[in-house]
Amino acid sequence: MKYRYTKFTGDLLDxxxxxxxxSKLSDLLLSSGFGSPRDMDAEERTMQALHDAVLDALFNGxxxxxxxxxxxxxxxxxxxxxGTRSKLEDLIQQIIEKMGEEGYITMPPDLDAERERRQxxxxxxxxxxxxxxxxVTDKALDFLGYRALRDLLGSLGKSSxxxxxxxxxxxxxxxxxxxxxxxxxxxxxxxxxxxxxxAAQRELRSARAEDRRPSRRINVTHEDLMVVQxxxxxxxxxxxxxxxxxSMILYxxxxxxxxxxxxxxxxxxxxxxxxxxxLNVVLFHDSAEEVPLSELGRVRVGPYxxxxxxxxxxxxxxxxxxxxxxxxxxxxxxxxxxxxxxxDGRIYRNAFGLDPxxxxxxxxxxxxxxxxxxxxxTFMLARDHDLVSFVRRVADICKGKAYFTTPYTLGQYxxxxxxxxxxxxxx
Length: 427
What we know:
This protein has 427 residues and is an alpha/beta fold. The protein has helices spanning 18-24, 26-29, 40-44, 47-60, 66-73, 81-101, 111-122, 138-155, 158-168, 192-209, 256-273, 308-320, 356-371, 385-398, 410-422; strands at residues 105-106, 135-136, 174-175, 180-181, 226-227, 230-231, 236-243, 278-284, 288-291, 326-333, 339-341, 347-349, 375-380, 402-404.
């Protein structure tokens, strides 16, 4: 029997790297309320918004190769625009369904109703039901945190990235001196070369003393063991304070989503490279609250004002419970303190200038952090003159650092500062 072979054209879905596509959709999946501050969920997590984001990623994000795009669009001279649109819609629908199957999003229960709603809107008929929405899964958030970490470490340079991996894939003790004989209680961080050399020299001395030829086998005994000397690298407890007041999404720029992405990357770094460290996240706005790391990717911009003191107070309470050698607060903000929680629980607010009462109470809490041996490093996303002076006073009181950066370079500064601390010796 003869077989007739035809050219395998494959499926357009096979040309798409789903993980690369999910990375391109990170702005939508991590949305913080920049597009629609008043009604965020209804506007930003709809299936229509996901459809439009996938379409933009296919043609403008480099997800599809050029030849695949040409194959998808066909020859414009054919004039089959309806067929092209149908193929494109089918591809987008397959992608969204695959994202659901792979566990990156939770699909709405009835997609047919959403299709009918969109077709009705396209025909000029009013939709009978609200738009369907999707939910971002924990898997997607964990993956986006890993991608953010990889991109940020890559931007630091190959040498820094390689040095960091090599150091931390060892035993966690960095070699700083010559090996020494093993003593009871030492960490069994053996130096193989020195140990074998000791055993060979001992066998040679024994053979000479007995006037015989040395054995061809090396027998290592307890007295031959040599261990590497190293300096102790401390564990660290960190609280990231994220400013989620409305200034973080005002003035035509989304500053909160990059800050949230950096926090997710730092969480991944600690989980992968520094498992002995502790990380907590505190959001501060009119008040302050701690959020679980698993919910970090879902947090949104909160109420309007900036209660820096309440955020510092909550962070200090969290760190006081941690029995770590190093304790620090990483504060990411773009605005001046403008709110204060009074003893009776009421919130005092003043958004005009640096209120002396608010500033004084905030600096008093900074001094309390200093008294508890807590370092505060401030990453400022604004450069207002009065604000710069305030941040420098904070750094001076707690002997910390002040970084004046942008949403685009924030991640590099945070990770470089964190990894720099991990290489310092605690005596």
